[in-house]
Design a protein that fits this description.
Helix content: 25-40%
CATH class: Alpha Beta
Shape: globular
Largest sheet: 6 strands, mixed
CATH topology: Aminopeptidase
């Protein structure tokens, strides 16, 4: 991910009216507001089934499989771990292989995808990325970026796999989110998400996707999610309401910014999308893409809170509109 990519800002600013209208159409406009107000935390809901212990278990295993640059042995082992864990939830899980054209030549990559069928064909995407940044001379463990979000996504998959849902859910772990060169730009980075959206278009499935929620860098010890101005307003509003409902008001008090992340290809395809990212990791974001991105600087409690908020959002989206 990277903030303030000028051409992305200009592209999405020009579409801001379209994004708002799209959110109103797909989420029901005033109906979305009503569903937000009706969110309640019950004994048998999704939120109560989220386990901090399970998140920690997944996180520790992911840390063992670090760092995770594309085509590395640890990356392949992590990918296998993800597939096997998702299959243990009785989900259909597979690898989506492709070749990325990068500044350093062709690199073989593969997204990991799992699907939980719902009552209908409408799809909600929950996503993270797998890879860690490559910087010469520095070993980046990637505990927060992207270990925190992978652990979160596995826990959401575990809980949702046991539910009878209205929506079909796809849990996607993207390869190649990080740039291969020094800086992310339009031609370097987001390889996995771009490839997956390309295949969605090829399969005529774009119109089936109801929403995409991306998790990234959610393990800071003082978590505050950025207000990403590229993200769909209706989804961010639902996130903020769920933060308040759960008593995590500080989570949605982050600064406004334009994030260039794996949700961008989905937004460009017309899919309502939300990037949940805390782009202030350590003092003045000093732990990001450094050797300080380690397990000692990640809070499992922070990940747990954000997973609970996402679960609250899914409860609201699953609830029949009045």
């Amino acid at each position: 991910m990277r903030p303030d990519i000028d051409n992305v800002n200009n592209f999405l600013k020009k579409r801001s009216f379209t994004v708002v209208i799209l959110g109103l159409i797909l989420f029901g406009g005033s109906q979305l507001s009503a569903s937000c107000q009706d969110v309640s935390i019950k004994k048998d809901d999704i939120v109560s089934q989220i386990s901090q212990k399970q998140i920690d278990r997944y996180f520790q295993e992911i840390i063992r499989l670090s760092p995770r640059p594309p085509e590395s042995d640890t990356f392949r082992k992590c990918r296998l771990y993800l597939v096997n864990t998702l299959k243990s939830f009785f989900l259909k899980a597979w690898e989506e292989s492709f070749t990325a054209s990068t500044p350093k030549g062709a690199i073989g990559m593969a997204n990991v995808i799992a699907e939980k069928k719902g009552q209908g064909d409408r799809i909600i995407y929950l996503a993270s990325h797998i890879d860690t940044k490559i910087i010469d001379g520095i070993e980046i463990q990637g505990a927060n970026d992207s270990g925190s979000s992978m652990a979160a996504l596995l826990e959401l998959a575990r809980v949702i796999s046991n539910l009878n849902t209205k929506f079909t859910y796809r849990f996607v772990f993207f390869d190649g989110e990080e740039s291969i060169g020094k800086d992310m730009n339009e031609r370097d980075g987001l390889y996995g998400s771009k490839e997956h959206v390309r295949r969605l278009k090829s399969d005529n499935l774009i119109s089936n996707v109801h929403a995409m929620i991306l998790l990234d860098m959610i393990g800071d010890k003082d978590p505050v999610i950025n207000r990403d101005l590229n993200s769909s307003p209706a989804l961010y509003s639902l996130f903020a309401v769920c933060c308040q409902r759960l008593g995590y008001t500080n989570l949605c008090m982050g600064t406004e910014s334009y994030m260039y992340d794996d949700h961008i290809p989905f937004l460009r395809a017309g899919i309502p999308s939300l990037d949940l990212i805390d782009f202030d990791y350590g003092p003045n974001n000093s732990f990001w893409h450094t050797e300080k991105d380690t397990a000692e600087n990640v809070s499992i409690k922070s990940i747990f809170k954000i997973v609970q908020v996402v679960a609250c959002m899914l409860e609201s989206l699953e609830r029949p509109q009045k």
